[in-house]
Amino acid sequence: MTTMTPETEPEFAWPRDRRITAPDLQAATDRGERWAMLTSYDALTAGIFERAGVRALLVGDTAAQVVYGHDTTLPVTMDQLVPLVQGVVRGTKVALIVADLPLGAYQATPEEGFRNAVRHLKEGGAQAVKLEGGQAVLGAVRLLVAAGIPVMGHLGLTPQSIHALGGTRRVQGRGSAGERLLEDAVALEEAGCFAVVLEAIPAELGTRVSERLKIPTVGIGAGAGCDAQIMVWQDLAGLTTGRLPRFVKRYADLDEALTRAVADYVNEVADGVYPAPEHSYA
Ligand code: KIV
To answer: How many CB atoms lie under 10 A from the CB of residue 232?
Structure first.
């Protein structure tokens, strides 16, 4: 691992004394630098991710699963997401915080999307929002962008539509669907999105979209040709178990480490080993 110090930092350093912005991400992409995003749902881990060099954090609607214990992203509400956004914002100083608009927060009318995006910025303190879909959400994207709200798109496997797509294990954009996805990506860029997430699509399509768009593509199961990558942090850290998508790489086994630490604590309490004198007040 290369640790960036003032001496080794590249000529175009990322800001240290202010939040990263959408134009900073565009500039990094323009100079060919690949950058990492991660999901985040609380202050403590958000600070860790920022210190580790993650440039943008997404308070994703995956909170429905990894925070609130649901099977899908569908049940989470704005009222449940906004306090998580507040925590992530309070725990960070420089990372760009993107807040997800959950199912039902923007699909009915662009105006509803606008009201909910404003909640994420005003109440949550986020600097950008993300929404899923192509042609159907262009009205919402245009309205938000016109109001000065940076919008991240999301194409391919869009988990808010899993009942229509046939499940979360379906790779999208194969065959002629790839052309439609490319058209949607171009339309999102033209509508003003500052970046677009590409989820679970063939790597060759991820590369094609990335070459076609000027804005950064953020891949999750979209191959190495994307400008940036994103993962759900609990997947990266090995906290999620069972059958995981092919794109997940476990960089640690926190499930095992935490289980061992807590079991040690339980045993020490049972054996009277904890608390020891050094943990007790005179
Ligand atoms: O909600 C989320 O966490 C996401 C990422 C997986 C891209 O949309």
So the answer is: 23
- Atom 2 (ligand 1): residue with closest C-alpha? 60
37 within ligand 1 shell (Cβ under 6 A): no
CB atoms within 10 A of CB 219: 28
User: E strand or H helix at 18, and its extent?
Assistant: none
- Please report the sign of the dihedral spanned by the C-alpha atoms of residue 253, residue 254, residue 256, residue 257: positive
Residue by residue, DSSP assigns 177-227 as HHHHHHHHHHHHHHHT-SEEEEES--HHHHHHHHHH-SSPEEEESS-TTSS
Band (151; pLDDT cuts 50, 70, 90): very high
* Residue 168 confidence (pLDDT): 73
What residue's CA is closest to ligand 1, atom 5?
60
> By the 8 A CB rule, do 55 and 38 touch?
no
Q: What is the pLDDT of residues 106-133, one digit of tens each?
A: 999 999 999 999 999 999 999 999 999 9
pLDDT one-digit tens code per residue, 24-73? 999 999 999 999 999 999 999 999 999 999 999 999 999 999 999 999 99
